[in-house]
Amino acid sequence: MPQPVWWLVQAAVLVALIWRFAAWIPVTLSVLAQVYVLLMRGTPIVVQVMFIYFALPLIINLRIDGFTAATFTLMINSGAYIAEIVRAGLQSVPKGLQEAGQAMGLPFYKILAFIIGPVALRRMIPTMGNQCIISLKDSSLFIVIGVAELTRQGQEIIAGNFRAVEIWSAVAIIYLIMTGFIALVLKFVEHRTRIL
């Protein structure tokens, strides 16, 4: 059977399955999302980066460099926490706001965008900021796969001049400056979005 015909047959089967089991799609996606969040939140980020850097290339037969593995790990790890932050923020909004939007005859997407969304966003800002700070500090763990991040650079400088106190103090101050900047931006955003 020629390749394009085979692709057409596969696409037709996929469309038929989706049409037949359309009611199960939201349930399936929900279960997959819950498994993803459970897996990412239940395993240490060091194990995740080691798996992506060392084990995944063996499984898919593709070499992944350290920076890509670190970036991908940070994305999937933070994604699980951010998904929970967004879920909790949306669920924290009183049901009365949605009912008020429905009483005004608004479609659900407008209720979400203009009524529920802004309230939930204000509630999510502090935890989103904390997650940014945690992700920044978690990047220091990627030293285990040789990624040249700040902690690794400090370690290499110490190997050359043996001045551990000064170098680790400088590394700590640089992290403190970066996390302090994020905290200041977070305070500004919180102030700008507060309800008067």
Brief overview, please?
The protein has 196 residues and is mostly helical. It has helices spanning 3-20, 25-42, 45-60, 66-92, 95-103, 108-138, 150-161, 164-193.
**SS-derived structural category:** mainly alpha
Number of strands: 0
Q: Shape, please?
A: flat
The mean pLDDT is 90
Order of helices and strands: HHHHHHHH
Indicate the proportion of strand residues.
under 5%
Main β sheet profile: none
> What is the CA-based Rg, rounded?
23 Å
Beginning-to-end CA distance, first to last residue: 68 Å
* Helix count from the secondary structure assignment: 8
Q: Tell me roughly what share of residues is in helical segments.
A: over 70%
Q: Uncertain segments of ≥5 residues (pLDDT<50)?
A: none
Question: Can you describe what's shown?
Answer:
This protein has 196 residues and is mostly helical. It contains eight helices and no strands. The longest helix has 31 residues, at 108-138. It is flat and about 65 Å long.
